[in-house]
Write a structure and sequence with these properties.
This protein is of the alpha+beta class. The strands form 3 sheets. Strands 1, 2, 3, 4, 5, 6, 7 and 8 form an 8-stranded antiparallel beta sheet that branches. A 3-stranded antiparallel beta sheet has the order 9-11-12. A two-stranded antiparallel ribbon has the order 10-13. 31% of the residues are buried.
Length: 239
């Protein structure tokens, strides 16, 4: 495997860095300030833990996500993460992950930029990615109607492609799978994704990813019909 592409690094102040894709040298620290958008930023809420914002920029529509913790730690630390160096920070890892998946032809949003702000032992961070035009989450689609069996099979095949590349999504749920206007699936939110040395087809971590998605659908009271879930598993297993 070739070396991972690294983001361009721009230090904007002491303890503050921008990570930039080569296509986005014009991004500045101001882009991560809500006041900069003069009230044009729109919150995107689909029931997730920390709603991202939709920005209209000279690069087109972008999604701005502030990193926040979930679970019990989130109650105490909120958006603070322990500092272990820039290359071990959450945005650096997600940035490199998205670039690697893009190079592999996976349907993930284009990575644009990230910001890391260190304060002593802790840091806070933000991420900018491209907006998938006309997209809605799998959860949103299922709330308004069912999906054809063929689409469930296509979703299973897409997850298999991800796993065959050795990528384990840390939070594969119904909010992190999108459908665009053409009926194509996209995968988002690769925070804490893990890279495995080998394909997951038939391996426990791949099945655990599928089980996580199934639990997500059940929790949202969107459990698919038995035939639909069987179609997803068939797509995952391949021909």
């Amino acid at each position: 495997m070739s070396a991972d592409p690294e983001p361009l690094i721009r230090q904007t102040a002491e303890g503050q860095w921008l990570l930039l894709a080569p296509s986005a040298p014009m991004v500045t620290a101001d882009w991560f300030q809500r006041d900069h958008w003069a009230g044009t930023a729109r919150e995107l809420s689909d029931g997730g833990r920390a709603a991202p914002w939709l920005l209209q920029t000279e690069l087109g529509a972008l999604v701005w996500r502030h990193y926040r913790r979930g679970g019990l730690l989130g109650r105490w630390l909120d958006d603070r993460y322990l500092w272990n160096g820039l290359r071990r920070s959450r945005p650096w890892q997600e940035f490199v992950c998205l670039q690697r998946l893009q190079q592999a032809g996976m349907p993930v949003p284009p990575i644009i930029a990230a910001q890391v702000q260190r304060s002593g032992r802790w840091y806070r961070a933000d991420l900018l990615t491209g907006w998938i035009e006309g997209s809605r989450s799998l959860a949103s689609h299922l709330r308004s109607g069912s999906l054809p069996t063929a689409q469930w099979r296509a979703l299973g095949a897409l997850i298999a492609r991800l796993h065959e590349r050795g990528c384990e999504h840390a939070d594969l749920n119904a909010h992190n799978i999108l459908l665009d206007e053409c009926g194509r699936f996209w995968l988002i939110d690769f925070d804490r994704a893990r890279w495995r040395e080998s394909s997951a087809r038939g391996r426990s971590w791949g099945q655990a990813n599928l089980a996580r998605l199934q639990r997500s659908l059940s929790k949202l009271q969107l459990t698919p019909a038995a035939d639909d879930w069987a179609a997803l598993q068939q797509g995952y297993a391949g021909p």
